[in-house]
Amino acid sequence: MKLVDFDGMFDKKLSSFVKRNAGKLTAEQLEDAVPLLYSKFGDAVIPSLGASPRGYYAAMGDDELVKCLCAHVKNFVPVSAFLARELEKRPACNTALVRMLPAADGALVRQIAGVLGSSREAVPAYMPLLTACGEDEELKELLADFIKQNADLVKEAAISNYKSGVERPLMLEILSCVKQRDDRVFDILISEFRSSDETQMLAGYLAAYGDERALPYLYDRIAGDVGYVEFRELKYAIEALGGEYSERRDFSGDTAYELISSHTAADDIFAVFNQSAEGAGGKK
Protein backbone atom coordinates (compact mmCIF):
# COMPACT_ATOMS: atom_id res chain seq x y z
CA MET A 1 0.00 0.00 0.00
CA LYS A 2 1.39 3.36 -1.03
CA LEU A 3 0.73 6.18 1.41
CA VAL A 4 0.13 9.43 -0.43
CA ASP A 5 0.28 12.87 1.16
CA PHE A 6 -2.44 14.46 -0.95
CA ASP A 7 -2.65 17.47 1.37
CA GLY A 8 1.06 18.08 0.88
CA MET A 9 0.55 17.93 -2.89
CA PHE A 10 -2.31 20.38 -2.67
CA ASP A 11 -0.30 22.79 -0.52
CA LYS A 12 2.41 22.92 -3.20
CA LYS A 13 -0.15 23.54 -5.94
CA LEU A 14 -1.82 26.21 -3.82
CA SER A 15 1.48 27.95 -3.18
CA SER A 16 2.13 28.03 -6.93
CA PHE A 17 -1.38 29.34 -7.57
CA VAL A 18 -0.91 32.14 -5.03
CA LYS A 19 2.38 33.19 -6.63
CA ARG A 20 0.86 33.25 -10.11
CA ASN A 21 -2.03 35.36 -8.92
CA ALA A 22 -0.13 37.73 -6.66
CA GLY A 23 -1.79 41.12 -6.76
CA LYS A 24 -4.75 39.82 -8.76
CA LEU A 25 -6.77 38.47 -5.85
CA THR A 26 -7.40 39.86 -2.36
CA ALA A 27 -6.62 37.83 0.74
CA GLU A 28 -10.37 37.29 1.24
CA GLN A 29 -10.82 36.06 -2.33
CA LEU A 30 -7.94 33.64 -1.92
CA GLU A 31 -9.38 32.36 1.34
CA ASP A 32 -12.78 31.82 -0.27
CA ALA A 33 -11.19 30.03 -3.24
CA VAL A 34 -9.30 27.41 -1.21
CA PRO A 35 -12.26 25.04 -0.53
CA LEU A 36 -13.24 25.08 -4.22
CA LEU A 37 -9.65 24.51 -5.33
CA TYR A 38 -9.30 21.63 -2.87
CA SER A 39 -12.51 20.04 -4.14
CA LYS A 40 -11.37 20.32 -7.76
CA PHE A 41 -7.99 18.88 -6.79
CA GLY A 42 -9.84 15.85 -5.47
CA ASP A 43 -11.06 15.03 -8.96
CA ALA A 44 -7.82 15.84 -10.81
CA VAL A 45 -5.85 12.82 -12.02
CA ILE A 46 -2.33 12.61 -10.58
CA PRO A 47 -0.13 11.29 -13.43
CA SER A 48 2.20 9.35 -11.11
CA LEU A 49 -0.78 7.51 -9.62
CA GLY A 50 -3.04 7.29 -12.64
CA ALA A 51 -5.94 8.30 -10.41
CA SER A 52 -7.45 11.32 -8.70
CA PRO A 53 -7.28 11.58 -4.89
CA ARG A 54 -10.95 10.57 -4.62
CA GLY A 55 -10.52 7.82 -7.17
CA TYR A 56 -7.42 6.49 -5.42
CA TYR A 57 -9.36 5.73 -2.24
CA ALA A 58 -12.58 4.73 -3.99
CA ALA A 59 -10.69 1.87 -5.65
CA MET A 60 -9.72 0.37 -2.27
CA GLY A 61 -11.68 -2.33 -0.50
CA ASP A 62 -13.11 -1.73 2.99
CA ASP A 63 -10.33 -3.57 4.85
CA GLU A 64 -7.64 -1.90 2.78
CA LEU A 65 -9.14 1.51 3.43
CA VAL A 66 -9.16 0.98 7.20
CA LYS A 67 -5.57 -0.30 7.11
CA CYS A 68 -4.63 2.74 5.05
CA LEU A 69 -5.93 5.10 7.76
CA CYS A 70 -3.97 3.23 10.43
CA ALA A 71 -0.82 3.33 8.31
CA HIS A 72 -1.17 7.08 7.76
CA VAL A 73 -1.39 7.65 11.51
CA LYS A 74 1.43 5.24 12.35
CA ASN A 75 3.77 6.81 9.78
CA PHE A 76 2.77 10.42 10.52
CA VAL A 77 1.42 10.99 7.00
CA PRO A 78 -1.41 13.58 7.02
CA VAL A 79 -4.89 12.11 6.60
CA SER A 80 -6.63 13.99 3.81
CA ALA A 81 -10.33 14.76 3.70
CA PHE A 82 -10.57 12.46 0.66
CA LEU A 83 -9.55 9.43 2.74
CA ALA A 84 -11.74 10.47 5.67
CA ARG A 85 -14.83 11.00 3.48
CA GLU A 86 -14.37 7.67 1.67
CA LEU A 87 -14.24 5.90 5.03
CA GLU A 88 -17.20 7.86 6.31
CA LYS A 89 -19.57 6.73 3.55
CA ARG A 90 -18.85 3.02 3.99
CA PRO A 91 -20.87 1.35 6.79
CA ALA A 92 -18.48 -1.60 7.03
CA CYS A 93 -15.55 0.78 7.56
CA ASN A 94 -17.46 2.67 10.23
CA THR A 95 -18.19 -0.56 12.11
CA ALA A 96 -14.55 -1.61 11.90
CA LEU A 97 -13.34 1.75 13.16
CA VAL A 98 -15.70 1.64 16.16
CA ARG A 99 -14.33 -1.79 17.08
CA MET A 100 -10.80 -0.41 16.95
CA LEU A 101 -11.45 2.46 19.35
CA PRO A 102 -10.87 0.66 22.70
CA ALA A 103 -7.31 -0.32 21.76
CA ALA A 104 -6.43 2.76 19.70
CA ASP A 105 -3.87 5.30 20.88
CA GLY A 106 -4.68 9.00 21.11
CA ALA A 107 -3.53 9.87 17.60
CA LEU A 108 -5.63 7.14 16.01
CA VAL A 109 -8.64 7.94 18.19
CA ARG A 110 -8.50 11.54 16.91
CA GLN A 111 -8.56 10.39 13.30
CA ILE A 112 -11.29 7.82 13.87
CA ALA A 113 -13.42 10.38 15.69
CA GLY A 114 -12.86 12.78 12.81
CA VAL A 115 -14.40 10.17 10.50
CA LEU A 116 -17.21 8.90 12.73
CA GLY A 117 -18.22 12.21 14.32
CA SER A 118 -21.29 11.96 16.55
CA SER A 119 -22.77 8.87 14.87
CA ARG A 120 -25.02 6.62 16.94
CA GLU A 121 -22.52 3.82 16.54
CA ALA A 122 -19.55 5.82 17.77
CA VAL A 123 -20.82 7.95 20.66
CA PRO A 124 -21.27 5.08 23.19
CA ALA A 125 -17.72 3.95 22.38
CA TYR A 126 -16.35 7.42 23.10
CA MET A 127 -17.50 7.52 26.72
CA PRO A 128 -14.98 5.04 28.21
CA LEU A 129 -12.25 6.73 26.18
CA LEU A 130 -13.30 10.12 27.52
CA THR A 131 -12.93 8.98 31.11
CA ALA A 132 -9.53 7.44 30.34
CA CYS A 133 -7.99 10.49 28.63
CA GLY A 134 -6.07 11.55 31.70
CA GLU A 135 -4.36 14.88 31.05
CA ASP A 136 -4.98 14.87 27.29
CA GLU A 137 -7.42 17.77 27.47
CA GLU A 138 -7.51 18.28 23.70
CA LEU A 139 -8.68 14.71 23.06
CA LYS A 140 -11.08 14.92 25.98
CA GLU A 141 -12.66 18.06 24.54
CA LEU A 142 -12.91 16.52 21.06
CA LEU A 143 -14.72 13.42 22.33
CA ALA A 144 -16.96 15.46 24.64
CA ASP A 145 -18.04 17.69 21.75
CA PHE A 146 -19.15 14.68 19.72
CA ILE A 147 -20.81 13.02 22.71
CA LYS A 148 -22.84 16.15 23.50
CA GLN A 149 -24.35 16.06 20.02
CA ASN A 150 -25.93 12.68 20.83
CA ALA A 151 -25.96 12.80 24.61
CA ASP A 152 -29.10 10.69 25.05
CA LEU A 153 -27.12 7.64 23.89
CA VAL A 154 -24.82 7.86 26.92
CA LYS A 155 -27.24 9.24 29.51
CA GLU A 156 -27.03 6.19 31.77
CA ALA A 157 -23.24 6.11 31.62
CA ALA A 158 -23.06 9.85 32.34
CA ILE A 159 -25.34 9.51 35.37
CA SER A 160 -23.30 6.57 36.65
CA ASN A 161 -20.00 8.43 36.17
CA TYR A 162 -21.39 11.52 37.88
CA LYS A 163 -22.53 9.52 40.90
CA SER A 164 -19.14 7.81 41.05
CA GLY A 165 -17.30 11.12 40.87
CA VAL A 166 -15.74 10.34 37.49
CA GLU A 167 -15.16 13.48 35.39
CA ARG A 168 -18.07 15.18 37.15
CA PRO A 169 -17.78 18.57 35.42
CA LEU A 170 -17.83 16.91 32.00
CA MET A 171 -20.70 14.62 32.98
CA LEU A 172 -22.76 17.65 34.00
CA GLU A 173 -22.07 19.27 30.66
CA ILE A 174 -23.08 16.10 28.81
CA LEU A 175 -26.23 15.64 30.89
CA SER A 176 -27.30 19.21 30.12
CA CYS A 177 -27.40 18.20 26.43
CA VAL A 178 -29.77 15.26 26.96
CA LYS A 179 -32.99 15.88 25.02
CA GLN A 180 -35.35 13.35 26.58
CA ARG A 181 -36.68 14.60 29.91
CA ASP A 182 -35.52 12.54 32.88
CA ASP A 183 -36.09 13.48 36.52
CA ARG A 184 -32.69 12.07 37.47
CA VAL A 185 -30.94 14.45 35.10
CA PHE A 186 -33.04 17.39 36.23
CA ASP A 187 -32.38 16.61 39.90
CA ILE A 188 -28.62 16.41 39.32
CA LEU A 189 -28.51 19.73 37.47
CA ILE A 190 -30.69 21.49 40.06
CA SER A 191 -28.75 20.03 42.99
CA GLU A 192 -25.48 21.26 41.50
CA PHE A 193 -26.98 24.68 40.76
CA ARG A 194 -28.25 25.10 44.30
CA SER A 195 -25.07 23.95 46.02
CA SER A 196 -22.36 25.38 43.75
CA ASP A 197 -20.82 28.83 43.36
CA GLU A 198 -20.47 28.21 39.60
CA THR A 199 -23.65 30.15 38.90
CA GLN A 200 -22.86 31.15 35.33
CA MET A 201 -21.90 27.68 34.15
CA LEU A 202 -24.75 25.86 35.86
CA ALA A 203 -27.38 28.39 34.82
CA GLY A 204 -26.16 27.79 31.27
CA TYR A 205 -26.59 24.04 31.76
CA LEU A 206 -30.15 24.55 32.97
CA ALA A 207 -30.88 26.72 29.94
CA ALA A 208 -29.40 24.07 27.64
CA TYR A 209 -31.42 21.28 29.26
CA GLY A 210 -34.58 23.29 28.68
CA ASP A 211 -36.78 22.15 31.57
CA GLU A 212 -38.96 25.05 32.72
CA ARG A 213 -39.21 23.53 36.20
CA ALA A 214 -35.84 25.20 36.80
CA LEU A 215 -37.41 28.68 36.64
CA PRO A 216 -38.24 29.05 40.37
CA TYR A 217 -34.63 28.22 41.28
CA LEU A 218 -33.30 30.72 38.75
CA TYR A 219 -35.68 33.45 39.99
CA ASP A 220 -34.62 32.79 43.56
CA ARG A 221 -30.92 33.06 42.68
CA ILE A 222 -31.23 36.18 40.52
CA ALA A 223 -33.13 37.98 43.27
CA GLY A 224 -30.20 37.48 45.62
CA ASP A 225 -26.77 39.04 45.85
CA VAL A 226 -25.21 38.29 42.47
CA GLY A 227 -22.62 40.10 40.37
CA TYR A 228 -23.34 41.59 36.98
CA VAL A 229 -21.90 38.70 34.97
CA GLU A 230 -23.90 36.17 36.99
CA PHE A 231 -26.99 38.33 36.62
CA ARG A 232 -26.68 38.35 32.84
CA GLU A 233 -26.31 34.56 32.65
CA LEU A 234 -29.25 34.01 35.00
CA LYS A 235 -31.42 36.41 33.00
CA TYR A 236 -30.49 34.63 29.80
CA ALA A 237 -31.35 31.22 31.33
CA ILE A 238 -34.70 32.52 32.56
CA GLU A 239 -35.60 33.87 29.14
CA ALA A 240 -34.37 30.69 27.42
CA LEU A 241 -36.84 28.71 29.53
CA GLY A 242 -39.74 31.01 28.64
CA GLY A 243 -39.60 33.22 31.73
CA GLU A 244 -39.07 36.94 32.13
CA TYR A 245 -37.12 39.13 34.51
CA SER A 246 -37.51 42.88 34.14
CA GLU A 247 -36.60 44.24 37.58
CA ARG A 248 -34.00 47.00 37.35
CA ARG A 249 -30.80 46.35 39.26
CA ASP A 250 -27.98 48.69 40.22
CA PHE A 251 -24.55 47.21 39.60
CA SER A 252 -22.55 50.37 40.27
CA GLY A 253 -19.20 49.41 41.72
CA ASP A 254 -19.25 45.95 40.14
CA THR A 255 -15.88 45.61 38.35
CA ALA A 256 -17.28 43.68 35.38
CA TYR A 257 -20.20 46.07 35.00
CA GLU A 258 -17.96 49.13 35.10
CA LEU A 259 -15.60 47.61 32.55
CA ILE A 260 -18.38 46.63 30.14
CA SER A 261 -20.12 49.99 30.60
CA SER A 262 -16.90 51.90 29.88
CA HIS A 263 -16.37 49.92 26.68
CA THR A 264 -19.98 50.46 25.63
CA ALA A 265 -19.72 54.18 26.31
CA ALA A 266 -16.47 54.38 24.35
CA ASP A 267 -18.07 52.55 21.42
CA ASP A 268 -21.06 54.93 21.48
CA ILE A 269 -18.80 57.98 21.53
CA PHE A 270 -16.72 56.57 18.67
CA ALA A 271 -19.88 55.91 16.62
CA VAL A 272 -21.11 59.48 17.16
CA PHE A 273 -17.64 60.80 16.29
CA ASN A 274 -17.66 58.86 13.03
CA GLN A 275 -21.14 60.13 12.15
CA SER A 276 -20.03 63.69 12.85
CA ALA A 277 -16.88 63.26 10.77
CA GLU A 278 -18.87 61.84 7.86
CA GLY A 279 -21.35 64.69 8.09
CA ALA A 280 -18.60 67.30 8.16
CA GLY A 281 -16.85 65.62 5.24
CA GLY A 282 -19.99 65.79 3.18
CA LYS A 283 -20.26 69.58 3.45
CA LYS A 284 -18.55 71.73 0.83
CA-atom Rg in angstroms: 26 Å
Hey, roughly how much beta strand do the residues contain? under 5%
Helix-strand pattern: HHHHHHHHHHHHHHHH
Low-confidence stretches: 265-273
Helix content: 55-70%
Mean pLDDT reading:
91
Distance between the termini: 74 Å
Biggest sheet features: none
Count the E strands: 0
Number of contiguous helices: 16
Helix-strand makeup class: mainly alpha
What multimeric state do the chains show? single chain
Overall 3D form: globular
Can you describe what's shown?
By secondary structure, the protein is an all-alpha fold. Helices cover 67% and strands 0% of the residues.
SSE map:
Elements lengths: L5 H15 L6 H16 L10 H6 L3 H13 L6 H8 L2 H10 L5 H11 L6 H8 L6 H12 L6 H10 L3 H8 L7 H13 L3 H11 L5 H8 L5 H13 L14 H27 L3
Helix pairs in contact: 4-5, 4-6, 5-7, 7-9, 8-9, 10-11, 12-13, 13-15, 14-15
Please sum up the structure shown.
This protein is mainly alpha-helical and 284 residues long.
Descriptors:
284 residues, mainly alpha, 67% helix
